[in-house]
Amino acid sequence: MKKTVAAVLALGMAVLLLAGCGKKNAEYVVLDEALSEEQYAIGFRKEDQALRDEVQRLLCEMKQDGAAAEIAVKWFGEDTSVIPDSVPESTATDDSLQKVKDKGYLILGLDDSFPPMGYRDGESGEIVGYDIDLATEVCRRMGVELRLEPIVWDYKETELNQGNIDCIWNGMSIDAERQEKLCLSEPYMENRQVVVTLKGNGIEAVGDLKDKVVALQQGSTAAGALDGREDVKSVISGGEPVLVEDNVLAMYELQQGTSDAVVMDEVVARYYISHMTALEEKAENTDAANG
Q: What does the pLDDT look like over 12-40, one tens digit per residue?
């Protein structure tokens, strides 16, 4: 599969910044106050209860035998999951699980620029991540192959309902609209929607966003979180956020200085901050070594 523009930006972001296209040695700030708190779940077609129940059962099995904790520690340094220990026995009568078993694979839809949940590795170009490791183990236990299908996040429900994918598994937050449209798993991780900015932008609290340009990913729960804070949304520049295709581009806007802040998932924000800081330090060390 071809690398997306977002993936290319992710790989080259620090280099571009250090080359003068953005702010060097940027100091990132995640505001303490969250716009909302939420939980991640896996989404299936409304009628696909049997498939949802089997995936949920296997996740609980992984929780019990320690496999889920091992994956969480690999990505986060500790067991951050909230997978339940058990769920009621399935009463589903639909054939969604059997269809997946008959074809021999499960198609997972995702935004492939959403680290650390699911994204393209900078060196191999392969899609990796916490959710990918969980899904890989679930599919192994189910006896089917995992196939990954990058999608435009704004059209995820359409991709699912048209049968192009079997599930949406990509750090997808639970909200009322998704509960209405999808058959959701039990929550497996907690998250917050937070504001990310740069030190020196004059933003130390949510109240400081007055007249500031705020960027976020279109179709994301960040948009819903901001909509739910009319006291904040109404005072930002233009009364509306700048919508971009993905979080990589949102962070790029922040680095370029074309936006003052980004609203995004905290787990993703902290990954980006750690990742970009490490890349900047590596590039600086390389420059110093080269004289």
A: 443 334 333 455 567 899 999 999 999 99
Burial label, 270 (beta-carbon count in 10 A; 0-12, 13-18, 19+) = middle
Predicted local distance difference test score (pLDDT) of residue 7: 39
| 3-state helix, strand and coil shares in percent for the chain, rounded to the nearest 5 | 45, 20, 35
Residue type, 157: E
Q: Helices marked H in the chain — which ranges?
A: 5-16, 49-65, 67-76, 96-103, 130-142, 156-161, 176-181, 221-227, 230-233, 247-256, 266-289
Show the low-confidence residues of the chain (pLDDT under 70): 1-25, 276-291
**Cα separation, 77 vs 93, whole angstroms:** 39
Q: Give yes or no for a contact between 23 and 17, defined as CB atoms under 8 angstroms apart.
A: yes
The pLDDT, as a whole number, for residue 71 is: 96
β-bridge mates for residue 197, sequence order: 29, 261
Eight-state DSSP code of residue 202 = S
Under a CB-based contact definition with an 8 Å cutoff, are residues 241 and 288 in contact? no
Instruction: Tell me the whole-structure pTM to 2 decimals.
Output: 0.74
CB 224 within 8 A of CB 235: no
Helix (H) / strand (E) containing 113: strand 113-114
Q: How many residues does the chain have?
A: 291
Which tokens belong to 246? Answer: 């993905």
How far is residue 92's CA from residue 131's CA, in Å, rounded to a whole number?
A: 25
